[in-house]
Specification:
Helices cover 31% and strands 24% of the residues. The protein is α+β, with helices and mostly antiparallel strands.
Length: 722
């Protein structure tokens, strides 16, 4: 569980927080194998016996004061009694994980050991494939599902369904694959007179992967696009839905917008001429047009089903409406604009190869002086309890964020007695693969059973308090600040439009710069007006704040916040919203402001980091540049590079090793592109060199260079100070 705070020293009180201009909060990656410093948790058992505070329900931890028969809660200070069993247990402190570390992972007792429970523990995967698609789409989907079959653990169950004007359910457990079809009515409100269980029993639909892999592959080969005349002549009854209890993942492969039957979407709104009507296109296209998919997500959460959406299309699909099905159920949303260079099979294999937790509950508690304000991320908020989030499926990359507010005007005292403390509890289940069982005669059997293991992971952290604004600024983590800012501007964009999101971002930087200049006494006043030359918007006296102007500038240049009239597709914007809002801070930093490195040769790095400008390329004199923009990796050989340098870089060189390591560590498969300057089209690389692209006559602030941007912020700070 990795936890990072915007400031490692918390503000003294509400006035100190507001006076600094900084955001105050944390990011949490609950299923990360280690903490932010690479330390693993202390593992133990009997999580159900861990004492809890009778006042605030926090868990006992190493920061609590322990007496012989009682303990004081490190969050609220309440004195709690200990049972005689706990007293005996804690007398042998080295045997208890919670006495050894403030970061623990404890096993919870199994609730059910029956055959039915073993069946429930089997990982279930269902692929729903769009047949109203091209041959190229289906070939790509087949490749992705064949990759998925290789990644799935033995004992997993797999079901194949197709949809167009009819729903197809596949039985692959016989000698040849059999498909049973249910026609879907064209009406938006159709119901199924026959239960899907009656069309095909669930255990007939879900096939064991280890015994049916070849037959599943054969079934995939039978997939063909539904012809247009089939769709227009369709008749019958509608689809009600299929629910699979337990730990299930549904993969939805879409070649375009749902335009048939229940949940169909009207894509004509994309063609509207908003500018001629004086409307904000971004504001019109970002909200969902129907609550259908949000309601369906609630049903999925209740049934324990996680939905991943894979959209392979370059037409408007209205991901603004569809996204809820994935993000609220803990799934992912992938968008590929072309079948030719799509990384879908690699993403599929990568996603299913890594460990993940099911049926998770995330809860953050704080000491009494402050509390969580807003929470951000791909989860389903508990309808009853505050600050409790449900996550159907959580991998080691999924990250969530919280901001904090003070409970009152008092804040933290200046004495050492008030120590800001937070505790994150993450209850989750993992599917434990079957072990080879031996019977009483010592003969091995081939029976395979998955078991479900519930665990409780708890992290308790204490922070310092900044005694003045300089300490607060010096403890800032700009990557975490960026994470919270991205969440806030996404929300503002969805509610008020992209323009409002951009304004919020710029205003935040202006206020921060003004408060910083005031704190460092950099503004001098002559007859009531400030002297412009004294204003420092580069934060030159505070290294921790210096990355922020570039990050804000880059975020304003990112398609996430570019305008519709600049050619940003609304589906791509939604995809970026979903991607950026689940990335941990360091990954988000690369996605917003890519890392540009130079190499003297493929085996020798020249400089570890350059600004994103043409000047940096020219002045470095290096022949090879490597750009990491998170979703894309570019190796660029300058036009002046020695022609004897091997192109592309050899597989055994340092540059290739670096690339392979980055690809291995990433939650998605980045595209890798090699460009030889002067010979290949270098526009995709040059588009990332954002710092020197000044206003090109269009008057749009989004094409402003970095120097001009700083001048603009300086002017705005002046106006704000006045």
């Amino acid at each position: 569980m990795a936890v990072r705070a915007t400031v490692s020293r918390f503000p003294m009180d509400a006035d100190a927080r507001e006076g600094s201009g900084l955001l105050w909060g944390v990011t949490v990656t609950p299923f990360a194998a280690a903490d932010e410093n690479g330390r693993a948790p202390s593992y133990g058992s009997s999580g159900d016996l861990l004492p809890r505070c009778e006042n605030c329900w926090a868990y006992f931890n190493t920061y609590c004061e322990l007496e012989q028969w009682s303990w004081s809660c490190s969050l609220c200070g309440n004195l709690n009694g200990l049972t005689s069993d706990a007293v005996e247990r804690y007398s042998r402190s080295q045997s208890c994980a919670e006495m050894m570390s403030s970061f623990v992972d404890l096993e919870l007792p199994s609730q059910d050991s029956s055959e039915e429970a073993a069946m429930q523990a089997c990982p279930v995967y269902v692929a729903a494939v769009d047949l109203s698609a091209s041959e190229e789409f289906l070939e790509l989907t087949k490749s992705a599902l064949l990759a998925a079959l290789e990644a799935l653990a033995p004992g997993s169950l797999f079901g194949l369904a197709t949809f167009s004007h009819k729903l197809g359910l596949y039985d692959v457990q016989g000698p040849i694959p059999v498909v049973k079809n249910v026609f879907i009515p064209p009406e938006a409100e159709g119901t199924l007179p026959i239960e899907l269980e009656d069309v095909m029993p669930l255990l007939q639909f879900l096939a064991p992967v280890e015994t049916c892999k070849d037959r599943i592959a054969s079934a995939l080969e039978t997939l063909r696009p539904a012809s247009s005349w089939e769709r227009t002549t369709a008749a019958g009854q509608g689809l009600d839905g299929v629910l699979i209890g337990g730990r299930a993942r549904v993969f939805a492969f879409l070649s375009g917008p749902p335009d048939y039957g229940t949940g169909q979407l009207d894509t004509r709104r994309y063609g509207e001429q908003y500018a001629s009507k004086g409307e904000d296109a971004d504001r019109a296209l970002l909200p969902e047009q129907t609550p259908f998919y949000k309601d369906l997500a609630a049903v999925a959460v209740q049934a324990g089903v996680c939905v991943d959406i894979f959209a392979v299309t370059n037409e408007y699909t209205d991901l603004a409406s569809l996204k809820f099905l994935s993000i609220e159920s803990g799934g992912s949303l992938f968008l590929y604009t072309s079948t030719e260079d799509s990384t879908l099979p690699q993403d599929m294999y990568r996603m299913l190869s890594r460990p993940y937790a099911f049926g998770c509950v995330l809860r953050l508690r704080t000491s009494t002086e402050f509390k969580p304000g807003n929470s951000y991320g791909h989860f389903f908020p508990d309808p009853q309890y505050e600050n409790v989030q449900h996550i159907i499926c959580c991998d080691s990359y999924a990250t969530y964020a919280y901001d904090f507010v003070f409970e009152n005007n008092v804040g933290f005292s200046r004495s050492k007695s008030d120590v800001p403390t937070i505790q994150i509890a993450f209850q989750y289940a993992v599917v434990v693969p079957p072990q080879e069982l031996s019977n009483s005669g010592g003969v091995s059997t081939n029976r395979t059973k998955h078991s479900l293991q519930r665990r409780l992971r708890i992290r308790t952290l204490q922070f310092g308090v900044a005694q003045n604004i300089h300490e607060l600024y010096d403890s800032c983590d700009p990557e975490v600040v960026l994470s919270l800012l991205v969440h806030k501007v996404i929300l503002a964009s969805l509610e008020e439009g992209v323009r409002e999101g951009r304004i919020l971002l710029q205003e935040w930087l202006v206020i921060l710069a003004a408060q910083y200049n005031d704190a460092y006494r950099l503004i001098q006043y002559n007859n009531g007006s400030s002297v412009r030359s004294q204003i420092d918007v580069a934060f030159s006296q505070c290294p921790q704040l210096q990355p922020l102007p570039r990050l804000i500038f880059a975020l304003l240049r990112n398609p996430l916040l570019r305008f519709h009239e600049e050619g940003v597709h609304p589906d791509y914007r939604i995809y970026l919203q979903c991607l950026f809002s689940m990335l941990e801070p360091s990954s988000l930093h690369r996605a917003v402001y890519p890392v540009l490195t130079s190499y003297a040769t493929p085996d020798k790095q020249a400089y570890p980091r350059h600004s994103l400008s043409r000047a940096a390329l020219i002045t470095s004199g290096s022949p090879i540049f490597f750009l990491d923009a998170f979703t894309i990796l570019i190796v660029f050989y300058s036009s002046t590079a020695d022609p004897t340098l091997p192109f592309p870089p050899p597989h055994d060189c340092l540059l290739r090793t670096t690339i392979n390591k980055l690809k291995q560590e990433r939650c998605i498969t980045p595209k890798l592109i090699f460009i030889r300057g002067g010979q290949d089209d270098a526009s995709i690389f040059e588009n990332f060199l954002i710092e020197e692209q000044d206003v090109d006559g269009s008057g749009l602030t989004s094409v402003m260079g970095f120097v001009s941007f700083l001048e603009d912020i300086t002017q705005k700070v002046l106006e704000f100070m006045k």
